[in-house]
Design goal:
The chain contains five helices and twelve strands. It is α/β, with parallel strands linked by helices and about 260 residues long. Strand 7 (about 155), helix 4 and strand 8 (about 190-195) form a beta-alpha-beta unit. It is elongated, with a radius of gyration of 33 Å.
Length: about 260
């Protein structure tokens, strides 16, 4: 009696080959991972030993704060796998920092460069802990670059709470006035800007040690400042005794 021959499973060899392939890939993967950890991540040559911080302001003195913010430890963090993009974005999230650069110098040095925002005015008075920059963003005095004592202050806007990093819409126009005066009219030294009356900005300006008070509408800023500049220079040259002027009447200068 002849024995029956069972048909061979056509998928058996493929299954065995597939299993061997998966096993080989796994061995290669774990071997490479072990070698990478051994040669790179556990290699003392790539552990951060040097941290260079460059900033012209307050953050140059706050190295420990910066290292906490970007989550790096000297002598522990591995430079090769460190994410410099995340570190840069973390620094740029801080209201008083305008921009930041974080780069690697192999084998073990991290370079950090910070450009700080420059405040254009105090909010409230010259002893205030709250400032504002050219974009109307609120800054904390504690973290600001060393302040120029001659910067003006804004009065007439009161609120109990200011959050560093927020932009205050009510300060937008007066900040525009301050920035343009600083940029285009260096002969005019603005001491204070008052915005207590809606639609009006009251400027306290010095021209060669002579003080003037000027009222202007809170619109058409560039045009109004041109008129103010011309009128104040003329008043100085003519040695006028009147020190108060207003542009609230159709933009024409009225001396009082």
């Amino acid at each position: 009696m002849k024995r029956k021959i069972l048909p061979k499973n056509p998928y058996a060899k493929l299954s065995i080959l597939f299993f061997i392939l998966i096993l080989a890939i796994g061995i290669i993967y774990f071997s490479l991972n072990f070698l990478i950890n051994l040669c790179v991540y556990e290699n003392q040559h790539f552990i951060v030993q040097g941290i260079n911080i460059k900033s012209s302001g307050r953050w140059a003195e706050k190295k420990s704060d910066i290292l906490d913010i970007i989550n790096i430890e000297k002598g522990k963090t591995v430079l090769l796998g460190y994410n410099t993009k995340e570190a840069r974005l973390s620094l740029e999230d801080i209201p008083s920092i305008d921009s930041a650069s974080v780069t690697k110098s192999f084998p073990n040095t991290l370079n950090i460069e910070i450009t700080e925002k420059i405040p254009c005015a105090f909010v409230g008075n010259i002893k205030s802990e709250i400032l504002v920059d050219d974009e109307g963003m609120i800054l904390s005095r504690q973290n600001c670059i060393e302040l120029d004592k001659s910067i003006p202050f804004i009065t007439g806007y009161t609120t109990k709470y200011f959050t560093p990093g927020e932009k205050v819409a009510e300060l937008k126009t007066v900040v525009e006035v301050i920035s343009e005066l600083k940029r285009n009219y260096i002969e005019l030294h603005l001491v204070r800007a008052d915005i207590s009356e809606k639609g009006k900005i009251k400027l306290y300006i010095k021209v060669h040690r002579k003080g003037y008070t000027v009222e202007m509408p809170s619109r058409r800023v560039s045009y109004m400042l041109k008129i103010i500049y011309s009128s104040l220079v003329k008043a100085r040259d003519l040695n006028m005794k009147k020190r108060h002027s207003s542009l609230m009447f159709r933009g024409e200068v009225v001396w009082k």
